[in-house]
Amino acid sequence: xxxxxxxxxTGGFASLLSARKTDFKAEITVIDEKEFDLLHPCxxxxxxxxxxxxxxxxxxxxxxxxxxxxxxxxxxxxxxENKKVSVNGKEIExxxxxxxxxxxxxxxxxxxxxxxxxxxxxxVHSIEETxxxxxxxxxxxxxxxxxxxxxxxxxxxxxxxxxxxxxVIEAAPQILGKAFDLEMAVIAEEFLKEKDxxxxxxxxxxxxxxxxxxxxxxxIPADLIILSAGIKPNTDFxxxxxxxxxxxxxxxxxxxxxxxxKGIFAAGDSIEIPNIINKKAIAVGLANSAYSQGLIAGxxxxxxxxxxxxxxxxxxxVLGELEIAATGFxxxxxxxxxxxxxxxxxxxxxxxxxxxxxxxxxxxxxxxKNSGKIIGCQAIGKDAFVRxxxxxxxxxxxxxxEELSGVELAxxxxxxxxxxxxxxxxxxxxxxxxx
Length: 435
Hints:
The chain is of the alpha/beta class. The protein has ten helices and 28 strands. The longest helix is centred in the C-terminal third of the chain and has 15 residues, at 287-301. The N and C termini lie far apart (59 Å).
């Protein structure tokens, strides 16, 4: 069996590991552009902040020891009918193929932005470009971050920590709009403002110049511009392949992560996958989701029939001492999907307030009104991700608020309260559901 894997990011890495464990004799080839094997781009903002070195994010994983061949290059074309891929002007034959080519930054139609790219405008995407940005950081200078998702805010915090004057400009009405409802996002926004990071929401950048950006006709000085306005799938080379793509260019797959072309599978940021709550296809862009997909795609490309149940959209980020995490649907997104919801929020501590070192923690739960099923959780504060991970499992299991109340959570004074804040939020949620 000849298996070719396109891309050695998180999805490709998980694919090759699971494939090799499935079949020790399979002939596996990986095609990737990097000089080294693995890169961890989620660590870029923390390297900018100075918490680690950029070189710590690069890894070689011993492909030769696993008897996996690597070809350095970029895939130019896929011939799905004759089962060949073109790379470096050569054709490579395959029996099965896994496409895990990831995504690239979305460049909005802002006047002047392409001309300044790599000089004054930077994306925190590749290690080369991020290192160039790092060299440009200068205390007291001004930086504009376009986009208030996780990477944008992590980068804003890093530049602020390095002494730059930072403004974040977001076209949507709030920051972190994909993961948080407004009332929760405000907590993170207030934290950033306390750090002297200015947040402008509901505003669009119309032009960038050598010295400034223009926002609705107003000129704002900018020594550096960081573009973090989203991603798009890296699938332009697939347009004539016959592989079915969504209207936004994401690869369509079935429950086995197989495309419409037999023997061709896909995983990672370049695909649309069903979410667990209402089974509708969605583009995720999360490394943990990509890894889970790779664990399915690898064995399936070698003849297994593992089903991918879908994503719970589980996410966490850290902004200095502030932890923000979410899973499932927000109330706002659920309502757009036609789901009537009930929500409850609890504010307290991550452990007993009489124990030294207790920190604030706010938890919000979202449930489907008719069934009482938990469909979302948002948490901000110390140990937020612990509570969100519990609810990710709850969502996957299809549990109701009533069923969650019977779950025993571990207790010890340095770590939690006897009646955890998560269960307190659930208690409030049950009362609302019973009305």
